[in-house]
Write a structure and sequence with these properties.
The structure holds two protein chains of two kinds. By secondary structure, chain A is mostly beta strands. Chain A has two helices and 15 strands. Chain A has one domain: Sandwich (Immunoglobulin-like), CATH 2.60.40.1190. In chain A, strands 1, 4, 7, 8, 9, 10, 13, 14 and 15 form a nine-stranded mixed beta sheet that branches. Chain A is globular, with a radius of gyration of 18 Å. By secondary structure, chain B is an alpha+beta fold. Helix content of chain B is 25%, strand content 17%. Chain B has twelve helices and 16 strands. In chain B, strands 14-1-16-15 form a four-stranded mixed beta sheet. Chain B is globular and about 65 Å long. Classes of the chains: A mainly beta, B alpha+beta. Chains A and B meet through loops of A and β4, β5, α5 and β12 of B.
Chain lengths: 240, 333
């Protein structure tokens, strides 16, 4: 397993350096994302998808992480392209991610009853313990003004925040300072998702991010058991 | 490598299949949302499908130092956790009988007492199972979150619920399929060898409640512990599927039922009631030697001699069956 991990790191280095040249161990940005300022409240962008027609879409190339372990089933060779739109409204940044996914892997998990389980006859059941769900995330450096940290979940000196949305578990803000350090911060954020005609469209409400902030995207396809580093990812995109 | 490790020995000759251990464990640890289908301790009929179905054949574990692939068992493989409409029946005046839901189509120990055929005769026995708290846990190696660890002070394998993200690589990697995913919490869970009980000097709930008194608990390297004596001195207990490469710390005294014809002219191995091939499948080829050893002890006792091994296996009281050192299981944070 150690050798697999080393192989993973080696392949990842090849992939990342193939996309962009190395710069002191950091991944330099390769693309820019123009943000469109809109004179509408953020709520409008979350509720009304038509407003997004005013925002130009950026085609963001996604890459597939190399197989992490020999015991993983191979993933589909078809790699989706991400349509990313960025809007500024007031002091907030909203990002719309849209991508093709032929299978909708979502679930509505029941809300936990307030009474403790030991006092109830009926416990909330687990229905599909072998299922994984579609998900998407936007990652950016925790420190404003930081240059792009490692794409592998940041660095110890340059931690990242990840706004993660799962089609089953909803939104959660995560933090990381390097590969294997990702954890839930306990915070949440506002998100709006829709699956229509084989395409996911998810709007993330992010905090204020100054121009020059690098953003990276990730997409998971539940039906091919994507979770963890088993995903599609973009390199850093610079917010304009 | 832990300094000391707790181990359990289960004498399959004494298991009644009553599931008291299963219920003791269930009431104590898995009576929560999302744990309905989970049995950290289960008792299955052998030969049989097992729980989850075909767990022994689908993969996981080690071969040549590499983790082996395995599918994730489905809910139907585990058996749905039926909920019964007690509330309607008891409080809301519904007159119909209490009914399970969903409609039963599979279940844990679904093939109870079916067993197999040895020639023209049916045979079966019960196999109680918990996490094996392996010396080389495949689950620990598979976890990319490093959420699973083997406790330094006692060898108990646990999942850090804060670190676990529910990726289920551990579920796939465990060749015994003794890790369960809780969809409500989004995290995986497993037997914790009742370490909070051991910490207070109490033995594991499954062992404490066992009416058959078939479980022995102690430190494997403690010369005074019954598990040390059974496994290392008398060499009367074997791990399940040793070829999976994880080195379990749960051991079984194999069934050594009397010879089929009972005339006394043939040994157990010459005229086995249970097909030896099946026992070799479960416990490896050493089972032959262990059964011969147990039979010779039995003969010694039948001839009026004293067998220390058989006396030990009787397990008259808790003192004989368990040797717990609570000072070893202090929680270190």
């Amino acid at each position: 397993m150690q050798s697999q991990r080393l192989a993973f790191l080696f392949v990842t280095v090849l992939v990342v350096t193939g996309i962009a040249s190395s710069q002191g161990g950091k991944t330099p940005p390769s693309q820019t994302l123009d943000a469109t300022s809109l004179p509408v409240p953020a709520e409008a962008l979350l509720k009304d998808s038509r407003i997004w027609d005013q925002v130009p879409a950026h085609k963001v190339s996604l890459n597939r992480t190399p197989p992490l372990y020999d015991t993983d089933e191979p993933a589909s060779l078809e790699i989706p392209v991400l349509d990313a739109r960025v809007a500024r409204t007031g002091d907030r940044v909203l990002v719309q991610m849209s991508w093709v996914d032929a299978t909708q892997d979502s679930a509505v998990l029941a809300e936990l009853p307030k009474t403790p389980p030991e006092t109830r006859f009926l416990k909330l059941p687990t229905e599909a313990n072998d299922r994984f769900f579609d998900a998407a995330a936007v990652m950016f450096p925790e420190k404003r003004g930081a240059i792009a940290p490692s794409l592998q979940m940041g660095d110890p000196e340059d931690p990242v925040q990840i706004y993660y949305w799962s089609a089953a578990r909803g939104p959660m803000v995560m933090q990381a300072a390097g590969r294997g350090t990702t954890h839930r911060s306990g915070a949440t954020f506002t998100v709006r998702s829709a699956y229509e005609k084989g395409r996911w469209t998810v709007v993330f409400e992010l905090p204020e991010l100054p121009a020059g902030t690098p953003l990276a995207f990730a997409v998971w396809n539940g039906s091919q058991k994507d979770r963890d580093g088993r995903k599609y990812f973009s390199v850093w995109q610079i917010l304009k | 490598m832990p300094k000391q490790k707790y181990a359990m020995v289960m004498d399959l000759n004494k298991c009644l299949g009553c599931q008291t251990c299963t219920i003791a464990c269930k009431k104590l640890w898995t009576d929560r949302d999302g744990t309905g289908y989970m049995y950290w301790n289960n008792v299955e009929t052998r030969p049989g499908m097992g729980y989850p179905r075909q767990w022994d054949r689908i993969g996981g574990g080690w071969r040549d130092g590499q983790l082996q692939p395995s599918p994730l068992p489905t809910m139907s493989d585990y058996g749905h956790a039926w909920e019964f409409d007690y509330e309607q029946r008891l409080y809301e005046g519904k007159r119909k009988p209490v009914m399970p839901s969903p409609a039963p189509q599979s279940g844990v120990n679904w093939d109870e007492d079916v067993g197999g055929m040895n020639g023209e005769e049916n045979y079966f026995f019960y196999l109680p199972r918990i996490c094996n708290h392996c010396t080389y846990p495949a689950c620990l190696e598979a976890c990319p979150r490093k959420a699973i660890y083997k406790r330094e002070e006692n060898g108990i394998v646990v999942i850090d619920q804060d670190r676990c993200q529910g990726y289920r690589y551990c579920v796939k990697a465990c060749p015994y399929k003794k890790i369960y995913y809780n969809e409500v919490t989004g995290k995986s869970e497993k037997c914790i060898f009742c370490y909070p009980r051991l910490e207070k000097g109490e033995v594991n709930a499954c062992a404490a409640q066992c009416p058959g008194r078939l479980r022995f608990v102690g430190l494997l390297d403690d010369p005074e512990s019954p598990v040390h004596k059974l496994v290392l001195v008398h060499r009367a207990a074997l791990p399940l599927f040793p070829e999976k490469g994880t080195q379990p710390n749960v051991f079984y005294v194999p069934p050594f039922n009397p010879p089929k014809r009972g005339k006394g002219d043939k040994s157990i191995l010459e005229d086995p009631r249970l097909p030896l091939d099946y026992l070799i499948y479960l416990f490896g080829s050493d089972v032959r030697e262990v059964i011969a050893r147990l039979e010779s002890e039995l003969k010694k006792a039948q001839a009026g001699g004293r067998s220390e091994l058989l006396q030990l296996l009787i397990g008259r009281d808790a003192e004989a069956r368990y040797r717990i050192k609570p000072e070893l299981v202090q929680i270190t944070i």
